[in-house]
Design a protein that fits this description.
The complex is a heterodimer of chains A (234) and B (892). Chain A is of the alpha/beta class. Chain A has 2 domains: 6-123, 3-Layer(aba) Sandwich (Rossmann fold); 130-232, Orthogonal Bundle (Arc Repressor Mutant, subunit A). Chain A has 8 helices and 12 strands. With 892 residues, chain B is α/β, with parallel strands linked by helices. In chain B, helix 11 links the parallel strand 9 (257-262) and strand 10. Chain B has a 6-stranded parallel beta sheet with strand order 3-2-6-7-1-8, sandwiched between helices. A 5-stranded parallel beta sheet of chain B has the order 11-10-9-12-13, with helices on both faces. Chain B has a 5-stranded mixed beta sheet with strand order 19-21-22-24-23. Chain B has 28 helices and 24 strands. Chain B is extended, with a radius of gyration of 44 Å. In chain B, helix 2 (42-55) runs parallel beside helix 3 (71-77). The chains are: A alpha/beta (234), B alpha/beta (892). The interface between A and B is medium-sized, with 18 and 24 residues.
Chain lengths: 234, 892
């Protein structure tokens, strides 16, 4: 990992590619550019980058095609670029295998933070039965959650929910995905359950449930458990 | 009075000619084959012309031809398409009449219609064939027709005098005038008599005697002269029109105006016709005046008066009715008001009224006439104002009054008889007098009055004046008293009753005027069609005691399918068709009219300058025909109503124009404002970024940082504006689809605040959520944006370090959000306009598009929520949002 990580940018807008190239390269990444979906797939297969930045707004729905194709033979993190009011597309992409998303216009620093987070996650393997995030800790075998080493009493479903989040720290989970995983495939229409439970969980684990720092809401898309650095001060 | 104009043609006249020319283009042309009587060959000539037309390619159809089985005529019909006729059953027989609808559908260029003066069988659309012809002409179809001079309204009387035959079927002179061509078929009387003997002349059911009488040489010569004269007059008029049009000098126009005084007697009809002929020949305007002096008129006389009114109107006069007890001064006054140059009156007959000497009438009229010429025309009819007519009231209604007057006198007499000794017989007379004075107040007319006076006088004499029980009067004083009593009784009674009659008349008139005034007032106050309809139906129903239906029209050609909902009765299909006919032809129809008289109601057109705009149907409850006067009154009401409807129509047009104008103005302002809002950040970005190209700048990290900050700020601003515009476009498109799902509002607020994290800066945000807030059904993204716009607004317009407080609670199935700051708050006048599109508070710094809040409102209202802005009591602005917790169905 001492070599510069390679990132491929698949976007038909030359300006966007240019600006990304400049800012990302200055942050220490190697940039591969692709103008079309086809070219993107080819280059990804050939050059094996560490991360894909894929524009959903590629002409001819190529964005989804690329995603599906890539997912057929690799698990590298894919961050999709989209515009506001396309939350449906974002959800669709996430469920087709994308890992994260960012909405244009974006702050370069945000993008870089996302890239870092996704790169890190792809390198982490869950090999212990204890996962820690900030003040929280989950014991997968004992099925218990601790905050500052104090056990938090949870109902079964609340535990399952947190279990899912811990196993996907930093990753955005769509509402449908969560409902399917925790409640079951028939529950995808019952978003109110999810809200209620997330609300309850937040009350139990957050310092201030109204400004949660662990389980954050991704507008119109889903939820994400953010990796919390204990030195961070909001 | 100046009788001669200068030689410039009168603009009004020219305008009329132009109008006529315009009309002629869409009207069919009428050609009349005119002759002195039956048998001269009019039908023959018409058919000859028709054949010529047919051979030259014109589409000719025979509407109705009376060949009377004459072989030569039938020969001429060969080859001409004959339109099928309508068969109508009447009194157990079948009759054929021309079928107008078939012809209208067929739309030929030319129709042949024989015998213009024919009366149609009841059950036909119109009463008279000439009305059928008018309808054809109005629909652009040319017509050839035949007519005898005796059938002309204005000539019918003279013909009767000459030939002794009453003319039943007449045609108004206006038709004659309307014809574009008159062809006179003229033969000598000798020739005609020859034809008669050959059996070539058709003579209907008249007896042989009558026929012989009619077809006398003297008669025929007179008729021939009349026909020639009529044609010559017409030619003369055509010539004058021509000269007028060509503005040929040398035509001087007289500005004479004629006035004829008419009354409820048959002689007036003669006067009217005479005046019309005079007016026509000297091209003068003429008016017909009726002076109502409060005299009671017999029912039959009332009918005659109505007939006279109609005749005058038909012949083209303006009708004026005046109320005045003095006929002479009324006539003179009216004449002066209307700049009349000649007055035509009837010469009174032999027996004069005691109070109005006939000779005096004429003398007074002449003496007061000043510059006006007076024509006194005698008649051979009984024109005397008979004494009986003068004094008698309507026999039927009166019987009761006579009897009761008698009864009162007898009753009083009896009482007085018993107390006569106490009061003395002179006092008795005074008491009787008193009673007689009071009788008229109770609507006893002159007849009963006089009866009461006479009976009481003689009764007094017989029963009270000594010697009692005789008619003999002893003393001279008593005798004088008797005479005085009689005179005083009669006169006072008469005068009182006349006063009462006058009073009643005035009251009646006043009621009418009030009704007109009220209608005007209410119409002026109405400012939409529904109000106008309501007023119309109510007032007309009230004034005429009738049921009223009002049918309006939304386009120029057809009436609406349903009458206005306020109407008192609805129409079946047949009635609607009648109403539609009235609408298209702008003429009245229905009961009591000449057209479609078997309808249940009478329909009148409501006509404005644009043309007909509706129809009103009236069903008078008492099932009585409206008097001529009432109809005139109704027409004036309808004019008011038409004006009101027109005004409403024009108002709407004005409003639309104003809206268009205003929206153009707004568009202008917006465009400029948006232009500015877009260009400003772009200018910053371009300016700053191009500065980087300067080598001096690149080496200066501080400069770079500053410029970058500026670029960033400008870009954020531009981004916000673009997002807002896109949101607004979504709202405006009307196709905003909400993705509703259960969400937690605090979550949503938080998300919004997260997105605003770079804008919050040094502001302090305080959130305050109720403990047990339930979930709300919302579209997360839309509502988030709505909140972002509001919170951003608070941040923008309050100083640094200000506090912004966000509270959320539930109440009654609604979720309430309060966003407030502790800044300066709003000025009162700004509050109602805050959420208007593109509204920016006057005097604020540039940098906002003014659409943020209106988008918030739009998004919130799409959730069926509300948002209001107010000032906090402790200072600062406050936005209050309410949202229903649950939305039942998906809203788009």
């Amino acid at each position: 990992m001492t070599a510069k990580p390679a990132i491929i940018i698949i976007d038909d807008e030359a300006q966007i590619r240019k600006i990304l190239k400049i800012s990302l390269e200055s942050s220490g990444y190697k940039i591969i550019e692709a103008e079309t979906g086809k070219d993107g797939i080819l280059q990804t297969a050939t050059n094996h980058p560490q991360l894909v930045i894929l524009d959903l707004g590629l002409p001819d729905q190529d964005g989804f095609t690329v995603l599906k194709e890539i997912r057929e033979w690799t698990n590298i993190p894919v961050i999709i670029l989209s515009v506001r009011n396309s939350e449906d597309d974002i959800v669709k992409a996430l469920e087709a295998g994308a890992d994260d998303y960012i909405i244009k216009p974006f702050n370069t620093s945000e993008l870089i933070a996302r890239i870092k987070a996704n790169l890190r996650r792809s390198q982490i393997t869950i090999d212990s039965s204890i996962i820690t995030n900030g003040e929280l800790k989950i014991d997968l075998t004992a099925r218990m959650i601790f905050k500052n080493d104090v056990e938090i009493k949870l109902t079964n479903l609340e535990y399952l929910l947190l279990d899912l989040f811990f196993k996907n720290i930093g990753k955005v989970l769509t509402h449908n995905f969560i409902l399917k995983e925790v409640w079951g495939p028939g529950y995808t229409e019952n978003s109110q359950y999810l809200r209620v439970f997330v609300g309850q969980i937040r009350k139990k684990i957050e310092d201030d449930y109204s400004t949660p720092k662990y389980i954050t809401t991704e507008s119109g898309v889903g939820y994400r458990m953010r990796p919390v650095n204990l030195q961070e001060k909001k | 009075m100046n009788e001669f104009e200068n030689t410039r043609p009168d603009p009004d006249k020219l305008l009329n000619i132009i109008k006529k020319e315009e009309e002629e283009n869409i009207q069919g042309k009428l050609k009349i084959y005119f002759g002195m009587c039956a048998g001269v060959g009019k039908t023959y000539a018409m058919l000859e012309a028709a054949q010529k037309a047919r051979l030259s390619g014109i589409d000719v159809v025979a509407g109705i031809i009376e060949t009377h089985k004459r072989a030569e005529t039938e020969e001429l019909l060969k080859g001409i398409e004959i339109a099928p006729q309508k068969t109508i059953e009447y009194r157990l027989s079948y009759f054929n009449e021309m079928d107008i609808d078939v012809i209208l559908r067929r739309r030929p260029s030319l129709v042949l219609v024989d015998e213009l003066a024919h009366s149609n069988i009841p059950g036909s659309r119109h009463n008279k064939r000439y009305q059928d012809v008018l309808e054809l002409l109005n629909n652009g179809i040319d017509v050839y027709t035949t007519l005898n001079v005796q059938h002309l309204e204005s000539r019918s009387e003279i013909v009767k005098q000459i030939s002794g035959i009453s003319i039943r079927e007449t045609v108004p002179d206006s038709i004659f005038d309307k014809a574009s061509e008159i062809e006179l078929i003229d033969i000598t009387p000798a020739e005609l008599l020859q034809r008669l003997s050959e059996g070539k002349v058709y003579t209907p059911e008249n007896s042989k005697e009558a026929v012989k009488n009619f077809f006398r040489k003297g008669n025929l010569t007179a008729l021939r002269e009349m026909a020639l004269r009529a044609t010559a007059e017409r030619v003369d008029k055509d010539l004058r029109d021509y000269k007028s049009r060509k503005n040929i000098e040398g035509t001087w126009k007289t500005t004479q105006r004629l006035m004829v005084a008419i009354g409820p007697n048959p002689h007036s009809a003669d006067l009217i016709r005479l005046t019309r002929r005079m007016a026509y020949s000297i091209e003068a305007v003429w008016i017909a005046v009726y002076v109502d002096d409060g005299q009671k008129i017999k029912e039959s006389s009332k009918e005659t008066l109505t007939k006279n009114f109609e005749l005058a109107k038909e012949l083209g006069a303006e009708i004026i009715t005046v109320v005045d007890s003095d006929i002479v001064s009324a006539l003179i006054r009216t004449a002066n008001e209307n700049e009349v140059t000649q007055i035509i009156v009837g010469k009174p007959g032999k027996l004069q009224m005691p109070f109005y000497s006939g000779n005096n009438f004429i003398k007074r009229l002449i003496s007061q006439s000043g510059n006006i010429d007076i024509y006194a025309i005698g008649g051979d009819r009984d024109t005397r104002f008979s004494l009986m007519n003068y004094f008698l009231s309507t026999p039927h209604a009166g019987i009761f009054k006579y009897l009761s007057a008698l009864a009162i006198i007898i009753f009083t007499g009896l009482i007085l008889f018993f107390i006569k000794d106490a009061i003395g017989y002179q006092t008795v007379s005074l008491i009787f007098l008193l009673i007689l004075t009071f009788l008229p107040l109770f609507n006893y007319g002159t007849g009963p009055m006089l009866l009461a006076a006479t009976i009481s006088a003689f009764g007094w004499d017989f029963f009270f004046i000594p010697p009692l029980l005789t008619f003999h009067i002893g003393r001279i004083e008593d005798y004088l008293m008797f005479i005085m009593y009689f005179i005083v009784a009669s006169v006072s009674g008469l005068l009182t009753s006349r006063i009462r009659a006058q009073q009643r008349l005035i009251y009646h008139r006043e009621k009418r005027t009030n009704a007109l005034f009220n209608l005007s007032k209410e119409l002026t106050a109405s400012n939409n069609v529904n109000d106008i309809a309501y007023v119309t139906v109510k007032q007309i129903g009230y004034i005429f005691d009738a049921e009223v239906t009002l049918i309006l029209s939304d386009n120029a050609k057809k009436l609406n399918a349903q009458p206005h909902s306020i109407s008192s009765f609805t129409l079946n299909d047949k009635e609607w068709n009648i109403a539609q006919w009235v609408f298209e032809n702008a003429q009245k129809a229905g009961k009591f009219t000449n057209t479609l008289s078997d309808a249940p109601a009478t329909y009148f057109p409501i006509v404005s300058k644009r043309g007909p705009i509706g129809v009103i149907g009236i069903k008078v409850k008492e099932n009585e025909r409206l008097t001529f006067e009432s109809e005139l009154f109704l027409n004036s009401l309808l004019t008011q109503i038409a004006n009101a409807l027109e005004r409403d129509y024009l108002n709407n047009i004005a409003k639309t124009s104003l809206l268009t104008f205003e929206s153009e103005k707004l568009y202008r302002t917006l465009f400029d404002s948006l232009s500015h809002e877009l260009k400003t950040p772009i200018t910053t970005i371009m300016g700053a970024s191009s500065t980087f190209l300067d080598s001096k700048v690149i080496s200066n990290p501080d400069l770079i940082r500053n410029l970058s900050v500026e670029i960033n700020i400008a870009a954020e601003r531009l981004n916000r504006l673009v997002e807002n515009l896109l949101d607004m476009a979504r709202l405006e498109s009307g196709r905003l689809k909400l993705k509703i799902s259960w969400h937690s509002i605090p979550d949503l607020v938080n998300s919004a605040l997260e997105k605003l994290k770079y804008d919050i800066g040094k502001h302090k945000i305080i959130t305050c959520y109720d403990e047990d807030i339930s979930l709300v059904q919302v579209d997360f993204i839309l509502l988030e944006q709505a909140l972002i716009n509001i919170i951003h607004n608070c941040i923008e317009y309050t100083p640094e370090n200000s506090e912004i407080k966000i509270e959320v609670n539930n109440n009654n199935g609604m979720c309430n959000l309060m966003i407030s700051d502790n800044g300066k708050g709003f000025q009162e006048e700004v509050l109602p306009k805050l959420f208007d599109k593109f509204y920016r508070i006057p005097g604020t710094k540039t940098g906002g598009s003014g659409i943020g809040l209106s988008i918030s409102k739009g998004f919130i209202e799409a959730h069926k929520g509300t948002i209001t802005a107010s000032n906090r009591k402790t200072g600062g602005a406050e936005f209050t949002i309410t949202l229903p917790l649950q939305l039942d169905e998906a809203i788009s």
